[in-house]
Amino acid sequence: MSNIETMSVNAIRVLAADAIQKANSGHPGLPLGCASIGYELWAKHMKHNPANPQWANRDRFILSGGHGSALLYSLLHLFGYGNLSKEDLAQFRQLDSLTPGHPEYGHTVGVEATTGPLGAGMGMAVGMAMAEAHLAARFNKEGYDVVDHYTFALGGDGCMMEGISSEAFSLAGTLGLSKLIILYDSNKISIEGDTDIAFTEDVQKRVEAFGFQTLVVEDGNNLEEIGKAIEAAKADKTRPSFITIKTKIGFGCPAKEGKASAHGEPLGVDNVTALKENLQWPSQEPFYVPDEVYAHYKEITDGLAKEEAEWNAMFAKYCEAYPEMKALWDEMHSDVDAQALLENEEFWKFEDKPEATRNLSGMVINRIKDIVPGFIGGAADLAPSTKTYMKDMGDFSKDNYGGRNLHFGVRELAMTAIGNGLMIHGGLRSFVSTFFVFSDYVKPMARLSALMGAPLSFVLTHDSIGVGEDGPTHEPIEQLAMLRAMPNFTVYRPADATETIAAWYYAVTSKKTPTALVLTRQNLPQLAGSSKEALKGGYVIADSTKETPDAILIASGSEVSLAISAKEELAKENIDVRVVSMPSMDVFEQQSKEYKEKVLPIECRKRVAIEALSDFGWGKYVGLDGAYVTMKSFGASAPANLLFEKFGFTTENVVNTVKGIL
């Protein structure tokens, strides 16, 4: 390693240590241990241009060990991303800074994914590698490799312990994603001490069994050795690669190096001083970097810009030679035309017959795939049940990366992380699918979808005790309340065809919010009063003749028809009620105060919520004078019709509940 390279690597360490010390909070161990990895990769092997962080053909770098964010911020500063300044580094972990505790997608220029939950970055990296493979298959022509980039992910022992990494790597190996390169920071230290207390497996053999090329770098500070391993990874054209790089946590700090205490607490003022002395750093001044180091990084970035310039010239020739591909490229890298879709009569058509909303969703998916060329997705081994298979679109596989049907296997957690990776890569519009009850497995990565503003779509079927014979393990109860509680996450539980189409319209046109469609297994009738008003989240589907109704019935999904049936029975006893369909509380809450008051007038305090799931969350609409026809327990194993009767989802019970509050 030359002297200037030694200085450049140590600049990463010093900046990270100073940022964490000033904040008196953070994780110095990874940045100190992995500085050489970051420098070697970004300076010599990664295709990127700090002057244009959104260059479509850049290599992607994900710091899966997001607690080591100070490493990433130091790299972004030194490489000149988004003018991330020393002042920004000095605001590490402070309110409204560009350097939050964990990297946040869309907040700091150059951050490719929100990371923090360990292993999540590994799943998203697999999704990005799948996106690259798919786009390359669709766009590349002889002599024009317009999509040709790698996805790198750096993580440590914690990422390897979390099950999501195994789920994701298993699929990556099966698919032969050769543009995926995992960098494993192997320092054998976790928060509680030596990893041997809980983690003694041979990670290399496990990942090799998944179908990866495995490589080892014995010295995590040997730039040449790291570089050779990265190039060997790139040379394998049939397998993803996994590089174990043996590092020392807290490298360079005499009192902390190799110790668990280096992981998650500041080094301390005296130890930062000792670090700089040990690294022979020329100044003890916080955030000091010599001019020659900045000049060295500037020389590197000037070279990186040339690579994009060459690609731009090639892409311009490609667009001339293949104007139809240029048009497709532009369409796939643009938002869906919401107005055109709203006015598309074919999109909104349906047959007037009873149908399960999962079937109706399948119908809509097969319309969207012809309208939205970047539409891609699949299920966790459940496409025949969730009705998510796109006809004539082919299956994405090692032999056909151009297929648009994804087979995730029984891997809901990784599936959702991969879906996020597909979305934030650019150029694609993704959906994932499983049974609604297994949204418990989906939830941690759906939360990242919401945090990142990645409008991933979720098709969640078998939405209630209507699952029937499979019993309580497969019958969701509290899951709807769980998803409704998440910020920036929209849940739709449609009642019929019109509402299902509206839900998909909302999902596929959303720009910053993920959407879940919660769908029935059992057939539901098409409702006379349903309309595109479902796009407002809640609306009057069957009204009272009175200015102020005697009561208001509020329902979603399969229970809307039940509410309408109860309304008809109540009318026979001169009780005049309004029925409100509430397919999406989230969207209803976004409406004006005037609209909400029009649908749920404050004068009418007698209200009944009807939903074959938990009542949690309904209180804001029902109030103190209302009542609930909802689930108070887990379900049971029996035919669906018997379960609805057993748990009170009958016209008679709804009628009696209304009369009880009147």
From TrEMBL:
Cite a GO CC annotation.
cytosol
The UniProt entry, under InterPro entries, shows: THDP-binding (IPR029061), Transketo_C/PFOR_II (IPR009014), Transketolase-like_C_2 (IPR055152), Transketolase-like_Pyr-bd (IPR005475), Transketolase_bac-like (IPR005478), Transketolase_BS (IPR020826), Transketolase_CS (IPR049557), Transketolase_fam (IPR033247)
Q: Which Pfam families match?
A: Transket_pyr, Transketolase_C_1, Transketolase_N
The residues forming the signal peptide are: none
Q: Name the cofactor(s).
A: Ca(2+); thiamine diphosphate; Mn(2+); Co(2+)
The active-site annotation reads 412
Quote the record's binding site residues for Mg(2+).
157, 187, 189
EC number(s) in its UniProt entry? 2.2.1.1
Q: Which residues bind thiamine diphosphate?
A: 67, 116-118, 158, 187, 263, 438
Tell me which residues are marked as the site Important for catalytic activity: 27, 263
Q: Which domain of life is it from?
A: Bacteria
Q: Which transformation does this protein catalyse, written as a reaction?
A: D-sedoheptulose 7-phosphate + D-glyceraldehyde 3-phosphate = aldehydo-D-ribose 5-phosphate + D-xylulose 5-phosphate
Subunit architecture: Homodimer.
Q: Taxonomy-wise, where does this protein's organism fall, top ranks first? A: Bacteria, Bacillati, Bacillota, Clostridia, Lachnospirales
State the family it belongs to: Belongs to the transketolase family.
Q: Where is the Transketolase-like pyrimidine-binding domain?
A: 355-526
Keyword presence, Transcription:
no
| GO BP terms, alphabetized | pentose-phosphate shunt
Could you say which residues bind substrate here? Answer: 27, 263, 358, 385, 462, 470, 474, 521
This entry's comment on the bound cofactor is:
Binds 1 thiamine pyrophosphate per subunit. During the reaction, the substrate forms a covalent intermediate with the cofactor. Binds 1 Mg(2+) ion per subunit. Can also utilize other divalent metal cations, such as Ca(2+), Mn(2+) and Co(2+).
Q: Which SUPFAM superfamilies match?
A: Thiamin diphosphate-binding fold (THDP-binding), TK C-terminal domain-like
Q: What is this protein called?
A: Transketolase
